[in-house]
Write a structure and sequence with these properties.
mainly beta; 11 strands; Lipocalin; 1 helix; 10-stranded antiparallel β-barrel; 68% strand; globular
């Protein structure tokens, strides 16, 4: 069921023919793996994406994302911002929490102009109770990472991530994932 749902979330990206750029992003921690695919749809910066976060002990979070991404300093290209949201399907094993959430947030990436092989990136998303359903009362996801450009289209990175899920039945928020991770992003 989880893989069918992920396929449905990624289907719009696979059938899009006007895509300008695609990124494949995979990262690993001691207990979790996160894999994602992002496609730029327009030259104005509209992009769609999807990712799957699997934690060995806690379950799965599937996400479909839509962002508007641009450079706020035209000509420099050092800072890249994206604002948008994610539609999340959460299937947590222990405690048993199943539901959906619509989280708003954004992402940022800064590349040092004097040494353009090094960059930092971050993202934050939040879904309050009003945009959450099922057993999910709220959702928070945040990450910070340091990147190094290995090849023109390949970045390796080290980061820290926290994902918190609010449980409607127990009226509590708990960590779904909180870890240091190592990852690789391929752009093509």
């Amino acid at each position: 069921m989880r893989f069918c749902l992920m396929g449905l979330l990624l289907l719009p990206m696979l059938i899009t023919t006007s895509a300008l750029a695609t990124s494949l992003d995979v990262n690993l921690s001691g207990h979790a793996v996160r894999a994602g695919l992002t496609q730029q749809l327009t030259k104005s910066g509209l992009e769609i994406g999807g990712n799957w976060l699997h934690h060995m002990d806690h379950g799965d979070v599937l996400a479909a994302a839509l962002h508007l991404v641009d450079y706020p300093e035209p000509g420099r290209g050092a800072l890249r911002l994206g604002v948008g949201g994610k539609l999340l399907v959460i299937d947590e094993d222990e405690p048993s929490v199943e539901g959906v959430a619509l989280a708003l947030g954004g992402k940022v990436r800064y590349t040092w102009p004097t040494f353009n092989r090094v960059g930092i990136g971050a993202h934050v998303y939040f879904a309050p109770q009003v945009s959450s359903g099922g057993d999910v009362e709220r959702y928070f996801e945040g990450a910070l990472r340091a990147e190094y450009l290995i090849l023109r289209n390949a970045n390796a990175y080290l980061g820290v991530r926290t994902v918190r899920v609010g449980d409607d039945r127990r009226n509590e928020t708990h960590d779904f994932d909180s870890a240091v991770f190592l990852g690789l992003r391929l752009d093509f």
